[in-house]
Amino acid sequence: MPTTPTTPSMDPMEPTDPAQSTRQSSGGARSPRFRVRGTGRLLWAALRALLVLTLVCGVLYPLAVTGVAQGLTHQANGSPVRVEGKEAGSELIGQSWNTRQGKGGSRPDPKWFQGRPSASDYDPRATGSSQLGASDPRLVKAVRTARERVAAFNHVPVERVPKDAVTGSSSALDPHISPAYAALQVDRVAEANGLSAEAVRALVDRCTEGRTAGFLGQPHVNVLRLNLAVREAARHG
Amino acid sequence: MSQTFADVLQIVALVGALALVHRPLGDYMARVYTSDKHLRIERWIHRCVGTDPSAAMRWPVYLRAVLAFSAAGVLFLYAMQRLQDKLPMSLGFAPIDPDQAFNTAASFVSNTNWQSYAGESAMGHLTQMAGLAVQNFVSAAVGMAVAVALVRGFARSRTGELGNFWTDLVRGVVRILLPLAAVAAVLLVAAGAVQNFSGMHEVHTLSGSVQHLPGGPVASQEAIKELGTNGGGFYNANCSHPFENPNGFSNLLEIFLILLIPLSLPRTFGRMVGSLRQGYAIVAAMGVIWLAGVVAVTVSEYAHPGTAAQLAGGAMEGKEQRFGEGGSSLFAVTTTMTSTGAVNSFHDSFTAFGGGVTLLGMVLGEIAPGGVGSGLYGMLVMAVIAVFVCGLMVGRTPEYLGKKIGPREIKLAACYILITPALVLGGTGLAMALPDGKEAMTNIGAHGFTEVLYAYASGSNNNGSAFAGFGADTPFFNTTIGLCMLLGRFLPMVFVLALAGSLARQAPVPVTAGTLRTEKPLFTGVLVGVIAIVTGLTFFPALALGPLAEGMSS
């Protein structure tokens, strides 16, 4: 317990006599229960303060915010995307676009636009990234493999593969790709779905979002919305 | 619009918004902390607590209240995590292990929010909102209370009284943090952050697989986690999780919220000491260091040195497409130069220099602009040191704001600045000497060492961000980093409050022709220089072994 180099009469630690405690308060007569003495009582007061503030900040505040937020039903509940009335994901959460688990394991499905590499294969129960440094040999290897894989999958030279196609996102749930990566996939997706490249390119343009408010962040393409549009076009086309 | 122009515009918009808002908010906070009136809800809270809200406290009493309240917080949060499975809304999660529960309790009470757990797979909704998020409010209010007590030390004379801790605490929560957080939470929901009480639910995706989507009272926690410079994510991916930070607007809003109170408090300080220009000198020093950091990291990330980043064509590993390098760098510097530690991109995968600057931001003591309250008192302690250095140069007894900086004051300030280097370097040294350090690294070589150094720097400075490849969930790291967080938070408060008490007792010295003008740009320059030399040089050898060695070799 720290002490001050003051005279004993100035010692503030334990106001024991009434005269002293009166001088301690800034004015007026106080009810005796207002005085906090001794470590035990102080801790008890601290715990009560915590409990009251828990009620205010930990119960009333989140309930009030939830009450207001549920007015914005769509956002507050995770921006769900519905297909034929059934929830098929969230427009904010990226998904895996692999083929169903088959004999040869699951691999990227050519009929869908593919998202960025994900450390958890887009499982929201385990978010996070590779955590590898910019010169780490394992990351070098992962980037090299991804470049070759993306180039071969889309039948383009490796030089055309953009950076977001070969680097894992931070959340492992990135719902977006760059317009460059979307453009790279147009021919492959068009062929696999029996659509014309122009039609698919028009869909990409429609699903490309600029920077928020014109200057915040980067232009991006929502992969789920784009694939929904492709699916729709392939059905009617 | 080119990406560079957009990134510059983003910084200009942020600075403009802060410049606009810091005046009314700073003045409002000064009124909050000097008013004699108690709101009805405050009187009700004080009656529940059983304290007299008008009783003035001398510094040891104030300190005792701070420590008692924080001790109660650690015990309560520890118990809550250990009993999680018995509480409602646990989502079926098991109790947290003792070492991790201690670490998390210490972390949230000390305003650090270092997380050795992953939110979505460990914590129930009640633990998050009534345990962790409550500390987001109150630990921030404690920081502000201590800062205000120090400002009162400068503003008052011939008294030992620094105000009443319970009043400062309750006012900080009720009048400042709650209203701002409520508004921010609703804005975040409008942008797309989730706010509900559901758990994981299954959806069947177009490609025929099953995805489990989480829910939770996220936006309400997100708002206070930024506003209170806490930083503990609801989910493991923190602010890079699209449900916490859905788009470019929410990203800028979160950065704004982080900087809002730390950059407004110097105005409060100026008001309370009766000279707004003294506040400007402090905020200018904060702004200069912050801006230098933003430029350094942004340039380094766009230049993307490093074998893997060069091969990929950009340093986008661990960054989100909707933010890009610019939005990620701005967030990274802001979060490490305040005591926030929330991340919208993973610093472990930043370029060597970019990651090094985020580490430097923390070891500078988090004063540019620093955490809510802790940034201001940290900067004022540095100002005391700067005044002392200037006094030595001209051979005069140093004075700051009409108070003599004598042997007692300078000893207290010196003790303050010695604490974090001792904890950071001591902790890192211990971890590296034992097998634990090497076992925790994900990366190899210099980068692996940086992971360990970053962990202790983050804990001791109450930041909470991580080079997250670091395997923090072991009894050794949970215990040592937990202790670093508590000591790094509360020992400095001891010295700050002692300093406040000692300043408040003094009679003011009249201003003469020889008085150092601490409201002038020259003093701001000296202050920045002293910060760079005193704290920067202390950590230079350690930084040379970590990020500098990595950057030079790649």
Automatic annotation (TrEMBL), chain A:
It comes from the Bacteria. The chain crosses the membrane at residues 42-64. Residues 1-18 have a biased composition (Low complexity). GO terms for molecular function: ATP binding; P-type potassium transmembrane transporter activity. It is a single-pass membrane protein. It is found in: Cell membrane. Residues 1-34, 78-136 are annotated as: Disordered. One of its GO terms (cellular component) is plasma membrane. Residues 19-28 have a biased composition (Polar residues). Keywords: ATP-binding, Cell membrane, Ion transport, Membrane, Nucleotide-binding, Potassium, Potassium transport, Transmembrane, Transmembrane helix, Transport. Part of the high-affinity ATP-driven potassium transport (or Kdp) system, which catalyzes the hydrolysis of ATP coupled with the electrogenic transport of potassium into the cytoplasm. This subunit acts as a catalytic chaperone that increases the ATP-binding affinity of the ATP-hydrolyzing subunit KdpB by the formation of a transient KdpB/KdpC/ATP ternary complex. PANTHER family: POTASSIUM-TRANSPORTING ATPASE C CHAIN, POTASSIUM-TRANSPORTING ATPASE KDPC SUBUNIT. Belongs to the KdpC family. This is Potassium-transporting ATPase KdpC subunit. It comes from Streptomyces cacaoi.
TrEMBL record, chain B:
It comes from the Bacteria. The keyword ATP-binding does not apply. The chain crosses the membrane at residues 61-80, 133-155, 176-194, 248-266, 278-299, 376-394, 415-434, 480-501, 522-544. The keyword Transmembrane helix applies. One of its GO terms (molecular function) is P-type potassium transmembrane transporter activity. It is a multi-pass membrane protein. It is found in: Cell membrane. Its main location: membrane. Pfam families: KdpA. GO terms for cellular component: plasma membrane. Keywords: Cell membrane, Ion transport, Membrane, Potassium, Potassium transport, Transmembrane, Transmembrane helix, Transport. Belongs to the KdpA family. The system is composed of three essential subunits: KdpA, KdpB and KdpC. Part of the high-affinity ATP-driven potassium transport (or Kdp) system, which catalyzes the hydrolysis of ATP coupled with the electrogenic transport of potassium into the cytoplasm. This subunit binds the extracellular potassium ions and delivers the ions to the membrane domain of KdpB through an intramembrane tunnel. This is Potassium-transporting ATPase potassium-binding subunit. It comes from Streptomyces cacaoi.
